[in-house]
Amino acid sequence: xLYGLLTYDExxxxxxxGDNIQSLAAKQFLPKVDQRLNRERLAGYDGxxxxxxxxxxxxxxxxxxxxSENIDxxxxxxxxxxxxxxxxxxDKGIAYLKKHEPIGCRDQFSVETLKAKGIDAYFxxxxxxxxxxxxxxxxxxxxxxxxxxxxxxYPTLEKVTYDYRRFLxxxxxxxxxxxxxxxxxxxxxxxxDLMRSAEIINQEPPASKYSDDQKFAMAEELLHKYARAKLxxxxxIHCALPCLAMGxxxxxxxxxxxxxxxxxxxxILELFNRIDVNTDTGEFTANFPLDGKITKxxxxxxxxxxxxxxxxxxxxxxxxxxx
Length: 323
Fold this sequence. Notes:
By secondary structure, the chain is an alpha/beta fold. Helix 11 (259-262) links the parallel strand 10 (250-254) and strand 11 (273-277). The chain contains twelve helices and twelve strands. Helix 1 (17-27) crosses helix 9.
């Protein structure tokens, strides 16, 4: 039997290392990787029968759905985004998913979306919760604090100038005048000294610069960094969820307002120490004890709720590979 691993398309300016981290979560269950299969071109696969763990966000190329019959899929940690669902859940798409049900979903939104179409679906959480194989002994931890793309959904100069249409739209709706809001809102709950001393990490590097091998190496390097950290502060679920798996104290900064973002989090947010930010005013609440702002001396303890999700996913993947 052949075994496949998902790879991903870039957009015009950057790519998301979080996608590669999700693939690493799948890779740990494979005896080998015979071929990498691009998520957006699964319908075109015409090779020998191949097993593929289908975890993650689906899909950008809705016109290339459904996957090839030569792919034997395991649907676990599957997210069907609200923007893609109307296209993916055509009669053909529904028939395909019913053939491979039950569908294990990363979030409750995906569960309900599939159930509404008569597809047997259940909540698994995210496969990156199983990345405890990167965990190190606490004696190997350092004093590093990483701040990883906090409030990345806020407008930035790079985003509003992404292309001509987006620039014009930002002028029309006033988004361009809110470019400085992210920095102001972060200052409300992260101490200025910590902002200066922490290592800032961007999980969306520039496009057209790295091979798939380099992207996976980058993802591995980030996991090793996070595994040894004193604290991680992030708005990236594929930074925060692996941190839970690796036992790294993590604070998730939730400042998302659009449904295309928030639908991804249904059932996941409860796992985190969390800062919830009012994106209009910058006022925030914390679901953990916080006296003032987050500083280099802030200590948080993860809730450890993720184990109840991680262990069944591990078992599901092992059984799929063993068949």
